Structure formats: C-alpha cells, structure tokens
Amino acid sequence: MMPPRWLHRLVRWCTPSSRPDLEGDFLELYEEAVDSQQRWLTHLHWTLAALRMLPLRLIIPSEKYNRNNILMLRTYVKIGRRNLMKSKLYTAINVLGLALGLAACLLITFFVSDEFSYDRHFATADRVYRITGESDTGGDAPTHSAQTTYLLKPAIEGVFGEIEDITRVDVTGRLVEVGEHQFEETDILLADSAFFSVFPHTFLSGDAQALFDPSAAVLTREVAKKYFGTAEALGKTFEIEEKVFQVAAVVEALPHNTHFTADLYLPIPGITDWYPDWVLENNSGYSHYTYFKGPENLDKTAFADKLNEYIGSQWRTDMGPWFSVQSLTDIHLTSDLSAEILANGNQTIVYIFSATALIILLLAIINYINLSMAASLQRSKEVGLKKVLGASRLGQIMQFQVESILVVTAAALLALVMVGLAMPSFNQITQKQLLLADMLSPGLIAALLGVILLVGLITGSAPALFLMKLPTIKSLMGNVLTRGNNRFNLRNGLVTVQFFMAVTLIVSTLSIFNQIHFLRNKDLGYNPQSVVMIPLQTWDMVNEYETFRDRLEKESGVISVSASSSKPTNRIGGWRGYKTEGAEDPINCPTIVLDYNFFNTLEAEVADGRTFDREFTSDATEAYVLNQAAVDFFGLTDPVGASLTGAAFTGSDWNLKEAQVIGVVEDFHFASLHDPVRPTVFSLRAPITTFVTWVSVRLAPGNTEATLASLGKIWKSFGTDRDFRYEFMEDELRAHYQQEETVLQVLSTFTVLSVFIGCLGLFGITAFVMKRRTKEIGIRKVLGAPKGKLIALLSRDFLMLILIANLLGWPLAYYFMQDWVQNFAYQAPFSWGILALTGTGALLVGFLTILFHTLRVTRANPVTAIRYE
Fold first, then answer.
1. Inter-residue contact 311 to 155 (CB < 8 Å)
2. Does 409 lie in the same domain as 505?
3. What pTM value is reported for the model?
4. Same domain, 310 and 371
5. Number of domains forming the structure of the chain
6. Which of 428, 548, 590, 838 is deepest in the core (most CB within 10 A)?
7. At 647, is the secondary structure helix, strand, or coil?
C-alpha cells in the first residue's frame, strides 16, 4: 500500500539527495508497518522519522548540487562585476547614494546607542534609584529638584525594607594641595560610606570600604598619576582647606556615559564643616542627591507614597518637601529637573534622530531601487533571451541579487570610511566622545552584515521580479516602457516618496530654526547684555560678600553690583511657604534672596510700588517684592501694602514671619523659555551673607577685558585659593537652547543630505527617461518644436511629482512640528512662508537637476536622435 502523497513528498524532501536509497527503504517499511498497526499511528511515526532526517539533508547536500551552486555563484559575481563596470555612472550614483544613507544611519545609530547606554555600565544599574524633591507651588509647574535635603538619608535609613543601601552625593570644587603643588579640582564627589556599594567601581587598589574613614580619599588612576606620578598612591596624603586626607583606594575613572563625573571621592562625614547650618539642620532645603539600592522592578510610585507618608509623620509637611523616585537608567533621557549634576539628554531628540536616520536610509534604498528598476529596462532583452533558452526563474533573480549585494557591500565599506571622516565633526556638534573603533562591536558588525544582505536581496529582487513578469515577446523586442505605459508607475511613486520625505525634513528643519530664532529674540523682561555673573564658590567668600561688593562698585568699568541666592539664569531652586491674610494654610512659592540693587542691575521694570532700598531699614527683614505672576498666584487685588506670612530661617529652624509687599516687578524670564514665568517672591535676609551665592555685575560698555582683569585682581586680593570665574549672562541664556541647536545642526546636515540623495536619484532616472525618449524628441524638433517647450514637456512630469510630494509632506511636517513646540511655554507662530519656501526650493532644485539632461537632449542633432534604435 502506498503512503499518502503529502507524506511521500515530505520524506522525499527530507531525504539527503546523496542517499536516494532511503526513499525506497521507507516505502518498504511503510507497507509492513501499515499492516501491523493503525494507519494514523503509522503516519505519525513516519512523519517524525522524516523530520529526523532533515539535519542530514542540510549537512550532507548533493555534491553535484553544491558544486554547481558554487560555480554559478562565481559566474554571477563575474557577470555582475562586468555589468556594474559597464554602467560606471549609474553604479557610482547607486554606491554614493547608499553610502551616504548608510553613513548617516550609522552615525545616528552610534549617537542613539550611546544615549541609551548611560549608567548601564554599573553592575547594579537595574537596582539603583534616585529620590528627588518636589514641592507643589499650586500652579501648573511644580518645583521638582534632583536634590533632596541633607537630612533625608539619616531619616529613612533602616526604616524601609526596600532600601538595601543608601548614600548621599554632592559635587563641589576645591583647591588640592599636594606638597608644594596645587591643583584646582572641579569634579570632587562627596558621598557616604555606602557609595561604592550602590555604584560599584573598578578598584585598582583598596576596596569598596574606603569611604568608611572620614579622613580617607579615593582617587581615579589619572588623578593619582597627576598628584603622585604613579597610580600606586595608597597611604599618600594631600590637603584641602587645611584638612589632611589619606588615599585609601584608587579606581578607574567613570566612562563618559555616566550622569555624574568624579576625579576625587571624599566622605561626607569628614567635610561637614564645609556646609552652613541651614544645610545640616534644615529638613526642607535641597542640597544633596540621594540614591539607594533596592530590588529590581521596584514599584516606584507605591514606594514614594510610603516614603511621603512616613516623612509626613516625622517632619512638618505643610511647606514640604515631598519626594519622588526615579530609576537610575531613566535619569539621563527622561529627567529634566532643576539642579541636575550634569546636563541630561533628551528622549525627544533621540526619537527625532532615530526617525531621521530611518528616513535617510529609506531614501537611499528607494533611490537605489528606482535606479535599478530604470537600469533593468536596458536588460529586458537579456532576460527574455534567457527565458527562451530555459534559464530558471530563481537563477535570474539570484543574478540580480548578487549584483545588488556587490553594490551594497561597496556602499557599506565607503560608508565606514565616511563615518570615520565625519566622526570628529559629529562629536563636536553633539558634544560626544564617540570613536569608530569602540562603536564597531561584534553585534553591530553582525547587524551591518545583516543589513547588507537584506537590502541587497530586496533591492535585487525588485527589478528582477519586474522583468520576469513581462511577456517574453516584449522583452525580446525591448518594448518595455513607452509613454503612458502604466506598468512603470512604480517609478513615479518612488520619486514622489523620496521628495515627500525630503520635504518633511526641510519643513521640520525650518520650523526648528524659526522657533530658536524666536527664543533668541524674545523680550525677557530685563537686559542681560553686559551682565557678568560671578560664583562666590566658597563660604569664606560668601561671608566676605559685602566687602567684595563694595570693592567692585568702586571700579570705573562697573555700573552696578548685586547678588542672589541662585544663579540668575537657572531655574529657581528655593521655595518657601507663604500665607496671605485670612488664609488657613501656607502655600509654596519659589523664592529668591537678593541684595539691594538687584532689579536695577538687571534693568527689570517695576510695575507697582518700589524695590528694596537701604533707606528703609525694615526692608531687610519685613519686606517682599513679588513678580506679576506671584500677584496672580496669591490672588492679590491690591498687592502693594498686602501682608504675607513667610518662612524665615533663624539659626537652626524655619519660623513663620509676617512681612509686607512693598512692590511688584514685571514678569521676567530667569530660566529658559521651555517653562512659563514662575510666581516668585523676592526678599532680603539679614545677614545677607547667609544666603547669597552669585554676584551679578553690570559692566560699562567698552573695555570689557580690562574691567574683568580688574575684577579678577579684586577677587585674588581676598586671599582665596579659587580661580576667578565669571559667566556672561547672554552666553548662559543661549546655552539653554543647546539641545535645540544640536538638533538643528544635525537635522540641517541630514536634510541637505536627503535632498542630495533625492537629486542623485532624479538625475539618474532623468537620464534613463531621456534616453528612452530620444527618438520622440528628435521627431518633435524636426516638426519645429521650440527648445523651451521641449524643456517644459520633458520636465513637467517630474516637477508634478515634486509638487505632489510637497502637498503630502506639508501636513505631516506641520503636525509633527506643532507637537514638538509644545515643549516650549512660548511658541513662535507657524510661518506659512516656510511652506512656500520649501515648495519653491524643492521645485527649483528638481528643475535644475533635470535641466542638465533636458538641455543635452534638446541640443542633440535630430537626425542622430531619429536614427536611435
């Protein structure tokens, strides 16, 4: 009895071709088995037996089949190389277009990979969390700081089972004295003893217990060599502000993809005298970063609720603070809080870059497919003849695929060269430290080989399948494409898609430029020009502030001097609770402690009342100035003279104290225009030296360098070991939009690249089309068609495709850009001129690309053209 057809075919397919006798054995054994057991059981048994022979089929293929395949593959490579060299121009266009697309994709892949790698090098990365401080100001934008109070760690240590280890972190700069040598260090990390348990490092000497000793220090290898000439530095000592530290360990430096940096580690218990009392004793002031190691997949929201409930039972919480929890690996891309240690990345930028890379790569692939489809028309007779001679369908498809893989491989090699050349400029734009050798991991190389194979197979299959579907007679006659033939509408569709993507990028780039231009030129409510900000850096200089201020004011190049408790160009980090008359509970509001003359120094406008004046002694303790947003926030209809009861720090505690509103200033923008103007209370404090940390100096126009040199001499005259540092307010305000500037630069580059790739494709397609229409153009010239009309006729179809691409790309780009500008509280109105400029530019570039071939064809001798074919 014969087995079912499906089972017979399965056995034949699974049996090695080198063992045809197995099929006969199977038939004999099947007849015996079907007589001795149920038929379905026999089918199951032999199905499993056939499948067990499949590995033999794969491992022991037919020697003839294997040998023929190798010979055919070698032949395909040889023929493919000849075909590519025969059409050098189109091969060059294909290789260049694909290489540019792959290079752009690789660069952005490196960038995105680096952004997602932040902090993941720590062995505990999935178990580390950061506690952040939050205060509800009652408005739409609560204050959310990366820092918490100094007292949080001792308050919760040992209370929660979820916390395995916990550490505070602070960053500072100090002058380090090693013997007779001095080193200005800006990246000193202060931490608790559990720091190296939470953040494991690679120890070259010493161990993770190093910070348990208050007088111990941990150095990186590079710093150890800088101080002592060798990494073998255990037991050696150095001084910071007359305090002696002994090296207890040496570690490898942290990689760049870490959200904090450190060259020198010191234990917090050994330097508590560096902090003022309000940091050490105040449970509502933000000063330190708090990290803990806990379980993986911790429910952060539930834990934060537990934490806040506990803190609420221990501390006064009517004025805050409240806490949130972040995963360590989320900090770099998703955290944009005030007082971050370093500037973080932006997830939106990563997505924009990823989308751009995909668009560029698709553009290059579409460009290649389109050119391959056009070039394949010249080979229609070859395909038709092979079909007549009996060539297999698979063999012909493989021929095209091998040629395509050769082109893609050449493009990939050229792309790697381009990436290596472009990497320094790309690093400068994106502020990265990427190296091609470091980024080419085995996984990425495997992915690149996979892309080469996949793109080669896809782009090679498209023209092959197109030609294989054509009737043999048409292929032999070469009559594949005629005017009006709908078979080649794919070409038009691909050209449209190319320019659709390019138009979308152009509109997006111009919209980003429009928004950045708007931000740079918006009236901030004060005059930042010629204002220099000077950090006081040490508590000794804070205590000397008033003397320092008086010395500065005597300089001829100085117009005015004042100070504030926070950097004027940063988000306001401090906040206090305030009660209006008749209110039961205080509400939180951002607060800045100022010195006299602050508003005059910034040239801010007074809307009502007055600002702080030395003639009114009560201003130092019993007066507030509000901005207009704060007036609205507190609901004050007649603010000047109104009473506010606010929190005042008196030695070691915060007490409520009543004061009077003496004036209102117009809203002005301290931070970037990503955020709206916050309601802000401005106050003086006595003594002022308890609070101010930044000095603002308005310089007289002209001779700025000489004035700054004089300010530096005054600074040094106070005997501080810190270098004189200053920042121009205008530069700092401009830095708020550095990420947007980066996006604009990268997107502009890749937009130009996308247009260039599109034009390369259009150039190649136009050449093929003009070649096909040579006879038609010759006849039209003989019949008297003017050159201008011929150019219009030949350009019309392509320009129509570009116009359609514009009409499709405009709405999509508009939608994405309207979504992007929601990141800003203040948005530039959309300029419809962008669409007009994009459309006109795309049509002009497209026309100039086409013009080269159209002029060449229209200038040709019509007799030669009529003889064509």
1. yes
2. yes
3. 0.77
4. no
5. 4
6. 590
7. strand
Q: How many residues does the chain have?
A: 869
502, 579, 534: which is closest to 714 by C-alpha? 534
Residue 465 pLDDT more than 50?
yes
Look-up: residue for tokens 């429910």?
Answer: 299
- Confirm if 765 and 802 have CB atoms less than 8 A apart: no
The answer as to whether 118 is a domain residue is: no
Token pair listed for 7: 């089972």
Q: Which two tokens stand for residue 384?
A: 């038709």
For 816, the domain range is 347-519+737-867
CA distances from 595 to 142, 434, 527, 528 (A): 26, 45, 18, 18
Q: Are residues 762 and 799 in the same domain?
A: yes
Q: Cis peptide before 154, with omega less than 30 degrees from 0?
A: no
Tell whether 111 is covered by a domain: no
Vertex 497 angle, CA 496 and 500, to 5°: 85
Q: How far apart are CA 766 and CA 773, in angstroms?
A: 10
116-125, 358-367, 432-441: the lowest-pLDDT one: 432-441
C-alpha neighbours within 13 Å on the C-beta side of residue 354: 11
Model pLDDT, residue 486: 44
The answer to whether 145 touches 133, Cβ cutoff 8 Å, is yes
Same domain, 462 and 417: yes
Q: Which two tokens stand for residue 145?
A: 């700081």
**Segment 252-281, tens digit of pLDDT:** 999 989 999 999 999 999 998 888 777 887
* 748 and 719 in a common domain: no
Residues 424 and 504 in one domain: yes
pLDDT in tens, 341-357: 888 888 888 888 888 88
Regarding predicted confidence, which is higher, 113 or 70? 113
Phi, psi of 186 (to 5 degrees): -105, -10
Name residues whose C-beta falls within 8 Å of residue 60's C-beta, 6 or more positions apart in sequence.
16, 18, 19
Q: Are residues 308 and 354 in the same domain?
A: no
Q: Which residues 6+ apart lie within 8 Å of 476 measured at CB?
A: 381, 384, 385, 388
In this prediction, residue 30 carries a pLDDT of 66
In a domain, 373, yes or no: yes
